[in-house]
Write a structure and sequence with these properties.
Blueprint (H helix, E strand, L loop, with lengths): L1 E5 L6 H12 L3 E5 L4 E4 L6 E4 L2 E2 L5 E4 L6 H13 L3 E2 L3 H8 L1 H10 L7 E2 L7 H7 L5 E5 L8 E4 L2 H13 L4 E5 L7 E8 L2 E9 L14 E4 L4 H14 L3 E9 L2 E8 L5 H7 L3 H12 L1
Helix pairs in contact: 1-9, 2-3
């Protein structure tokens, strides 16, 4: 098969591992920078041009679209879909997953556990917002943030009011969430491919850091999921309609609480923590589906 990986950097761990896994299984693997693809849109002949050449005879694509280029990246994925090429992550699912607010609404409608969340249209009644999530400490998140950026822990009511008012003043869209104390700065990342859990790790924030992202110096270790945690992850991925996803959740006194469903989860943390060949699982999913 001819498989295209849409990635802006062929040297990234995730991209390199997918290339290795694909070539090991006898496929022709191309890495294309989606931001440099030109789209030709016309009746019955949608096409993609890369480096002045038409991209042809592609059997499948594996999108690795960064949050900062979601709009254009999704357009490229959609163009491949119009050319009848299988995508490991569908364009509509990619768009849905990148909208934090919409994702939470979809997950809530599916009766999945979530931290209590408030979203307003720049409301000035900050004390009421704080009360609705159970008071301080609480979390304030930028709707556009990734990898722990734009996430603030407000430890007191006064600090929470200041942070919310500051974001509102900048016309920055935020959600306010309850702080789950019993999680103790740790979360779980569950990697799901084609409706099956292929790996799970517990991520712990470094000393004095409430964010557990590995990019922020957190550590990770393999974890055995409870049935409730596994079922929650699988259901979340199913309702988000993602073929490949990383589900982030907190362990709480009331069961697993889903934070986010990531449509371009990194492979390095999960492969190193679990020893699993996640890249191979993704390639095999593409083989079955394309």
């Amino acid at each position: 098969m001819k498989i295209v990986i849409l990635s802006r950097n062929s040297k990234l761990y995730s991209t390199k591992r997918l290339v290795e896994a694909g070539e090991k299984r006898g496929h022709e693997i191309l890495v294309l920078d989606h931001t440099k693809c030109d789209l030709i849109i016309e009746k019955r002949k949608p096409a993609i041009v890369y480096n002045h050449e038409l991209v042809t005879d592609v059997d499948a694509i594996i999108p690795r679209i960064g949050a900062s280029v979601t709009f254009y990246g999704t357009a490229v994925v959609r163009q491949f879909e119009m050319m009848k090429v299988f995508s490991a992550v569908e364009s509509q699912a990619l768009v849905r997953s990148r909208d934090k607010l919409s994702s939470l609404q979809v997950l809530s409608r599916a009766n999945l556990g979530l931290p209590k969340t408030v979203f307003t249209n720049y409301s000035k009644d900050t004390s009421e917002i704080i009360k609705k999530v159970g008071g301080a400490p609480l979390i304030v998140k930028l709707l556009e943030g990734t990898q722990g950026l734009g996430v603030v822990l407000a430890e007191t009511k006064k600090a929470a009011e200041s942070v919310i008012e500051a974001f509102n003043g900048l016309q920055a869209r935020v959600i306010v969430q309850e702080y789950i104390k019993e999680a103790k700065g740790a979360d779980i990342r569950v990697f799901v491919v084609d409706g099956v859990v292929v790996g799970a790790m517990k991520r712990q924030g470094k000393e004095g850091e409430f964010r557990s992202n590995l990019h922020r110096g957190g550590t990770s270790e393999i974890i055995e999921l409870t049935d409730e945690e596994e079922n929650a992850a699988l259901k979340a991925v199913k309702v988000m309609k993602l073929g490949v996803a990383g589900v982030d959740m907190l362990q709480s006194d009331r069961g697993p609480l889903i934070l986010e469903v990531n449509s371009s989860p990194g492979l390095e943390g999960i492969e190193k923590a679990t020893g699993k060949d996640v890249a191979k699982s993704i390639i095999r999913y593409v083989e079955r589906s394309a």
